[in-house]
Write a structure and sequence with these properties.
Elements lengths: L6 H9 L9 H6 L3 E5 L2 E10 L2 E9 L6 E6 L4 E3 L13 H24 L10 H10 L2 H8 L7
Amino acid sequence: MSSSVDQHIVNFNRSFETWDIELPEDVVKNRQRGKIVKSGWTIWYLFGTDETGKYLDYYASHRMTNDRHVRLYANGSSKSLNSYCSMRRVSDDPEENKRLENEFWEHNERVSRELESKGFGLEGDEHPSTIINRALISSRESHRRVTKGSDSED
């Protein structure tokens, strides 16, 4: 890549260099949105601009770690964005447990809407573990469909 590449591109590529993943040069040049499916990862990305400057948003999913949703700025700064919670807190108190369950699903359903609005929804060509995980945690309804007939209570 050329030496004039902004820091957000450098930081993205550095984050995934262990898996030999980087943004293709034509994507960077044309500021295209896209998706990378490689080495167990599914990574959606898009370019944009806000009050802080040029940015690269990405959502990365791998079965061996928690999902991450990050905004990398061209100036080198970054911020975490909402991502799915893969585990939920529980309580022995039935009322508290129900509240915690509702919070978990409300958060994940909000994340699903955010990801869909950014074009980071499933299209069927993602890593299989990403598809399964999303089905299990993206919404109460998808969880019920996937676990129907299993030993799970919900």
